[in-house]
Amino acid sequence: MGTGKTALVLGGGGAKGAYEIGVWQALNELGVDIHIVTGTSIGAVNGALVAQNDFEAAKSSWSEIKESTITELTEREELRQILERYIKEDVIRRGPVEYGLVTVEFPSFKEHCTFLADMPEGELLDYILASAACFPIIQPYEIDNKKFIDGAYFDNLPVEMALEKGAEHVIAVDLEAIGLLRKATWKDSPRLTIIASAWNLGKFWAFEPENVKRILRLGYLDTMKAFGAFSGKKYTFLRGQFAGERLEEADAAAAAFELDPAIVYSKEVLDQKLLEAVNQETSRQWKEDVKSKVKRFLTDGPGTLLEEEILAKRYVVRNGILW
């Protein structure tokens, strides 16, 4: 990332936040040092774990959170107990990472973009729970006789907060969830890398273990691609296996046959998985559909085929998979 401070900005999005843990895992493997962390809602939870530099605690905490832990007022104490087990305020205060979050005062809707250094000691968990109070599903959280709600009501991706803290480089994880984004000050910044999924990350409350595992894996792979360790757009390929248009064709073919996006594909593995898909009954129908479209393509021109279908056809024909 060069010289200067690097910030990690984590957006809100409920269960989609597992994606951010995967991003962090990849950044660790890539040796990217994080100096500033800002977050909103679930991003504030994950951000505290990043600032604490405890990846195993992050994974373990996600295994304990379930829908009722978040949504039911009577279970809010359960969520606090989970966070108390894994988030250690004293460790974060002693550490080198500057940590901040966003919450919104209710009913005035006054924003509070607050770094840990400006929070009273012992109140970090209160601020995190306030940032994650997804009103009206979750009732406002009270701190010092004031009520607060989810920071997404002001800024669901607090990039500006990190820039104002002196970040020279910003890695922002956009979960593309409901909430306001204050893009005007940073959308064209050359110092910004945005990581977002090309896949549907599921429902806001889908904290099922298998879904969390899948989302975390996608965050990891997307980050490795963003930093050049792997290649691909929707799918992930070993570097050097495909180049240029051939990479686009491979990506389109994997999408056309609905292959697993959680796998890192070599050419050999991709071709094997495509052959397996072709032999399935559902794919035989796809094969006939594509043959029909190709016939029209040869006689009527390319307008009858979508661009991704053309790229997919090129790959499977060129590699002897479909015909």
UniProtKB/TrEMBL annotation:
Keyword check for Lipid metabolism: yes
Domain PNPLA: 8-163
InterPro entries found in the cross-reference section: Acyl_Trfase/lysoPLipase, NTE, PNPLA_dom
Motif (GXGXXG): 12-17
Location of the active site: S41 (nucleophile), D150 (proton acceptor)
GO molecular function: hydrolase activity
GO biological process, one term: lipid catabolic process
Residues spanned by motif DGA/G: 150-152
The keyword Hydrolase belongs to this UniProt entry's keyword annotation: yes
Keywords noted in UniProt: Hydrolase, Lipid degradation, Lipid metabolism
One Pfam family linked to the record: Patatin
Motif GXSXG, residue numbers: 39-43
Name of this protein: Patatin-like phospholipase family protein
